[in-house]
Amino acid sequence: MNPPEPLVLIVSGPSGSGKSTLVQKLIELPTTLLAISCTTRPPRKTENDGKWYNFVTEAEFQEMVARGEFLEYAQVFGKNWYGTPSKWLDQARAQRKDLVLEIDVQGALQVKQKLPGAVAIFVLPPSRAELEHRIRARGQDSEDEIRRRLERARQEMLNYSSYDFAVVNDDLERAGREVQAIALASRCRVARNEEQIRDILKSFGG
Amino acid sequence: MNPPEPLVLIVSGPSGSGKSTLVQKLIELPTTLLAISCTTRPPRKTENDGKWYNFVTEAEFQEMVARGEFLEYAQVFGKNWYGTPSKWLDQARAQRKDLVLEIDVQGALQVKQKLPGAVAIFVLPPSRAELEHRIRARGQDSEDEIRRRLERARQEMLNYSSYDFAVVNDDLERAGREVQAIALASRCRVARNEEQIRDILKSFGG
Lengths: 206, 206
Fold this sequence. Notes:
By secondary structure, the first copy, chain A, is of the alpha/beta class. The first copy, chain A, has eight helices and nine strands.
């Protein structure tokens, strides 16, 4: 019997929506595995290679593209490249875990096309004012970057209907419970449990 | 603004699958309301009218059918009638709660036809042996009835693919967490939150 295809949980949301904190809530679950993305953007001071990203050169990234090693990849702001290596899907399959992808809208659409059973969660800020407040509080961005992030947030959110679930992150506790519930419930979909159900039916004589 | 249509959570499963205990887990949630079914079957010793069922006469039941008062109804074992009055949907709408229906496969199919957004959960026993053990342990049924219940369980389970979710009740704690997660996750479906998402988008200028 081959290991079943892993459940793939996509989490997207604008920068500052609290998406990464909610991804943390997902990977607290014993059933999940986080895919580490590759990127050509330079690491921030606090970032170690291999924790949230594998930092690669543009040349390395393009070689991986040429070898077809990405489940999805995209260029952001016409500048840095981001991609999820397909090997994470193999690892999740081998470990019988659910694979969590923290990726943007472009990437989510690519994954949904390749893996129609993937479950896509969109994290929304409660309002523009709150998102702007959070981005400013982080203190990492110039006025120009803040404007660009807010405009990008708006554009990303226009794609909400490509997602299965929406989590409004106005209360981190509640939003955390919601993403965990989405993961747990998705494991219970009939389509993911046909084999076990048929085994039970067999015990009844079919 | 009209109250949104209630989320309807259908729970089905063979007698002895632990379905009623899992329904209890659902109605522990502050967001849910249990629909009380009407039935023409005689109450068991432990049953009060109005807690799990409203016990009615065959004539009363048929009058309700004639007045179109049921969301779903069916005859079980060609003998007793069971039905869910539509008024529960109105109550759930008014209270802005999710409506929980503990109904059989025939009823579930009727509700899914009328309310395609309803979420249907099928509770399965882990095996025939375990179901038979539980039915015998209850000590309420004759050998004939036990045989009939097991055969009916098999027939009900053949309809599993009409359901959205399957919960195998081999561990009540885990199964309870699963049904609660299904309820919570279902509230997060994008289709149920369009209005809130559009309001957030409006704050970004549309």
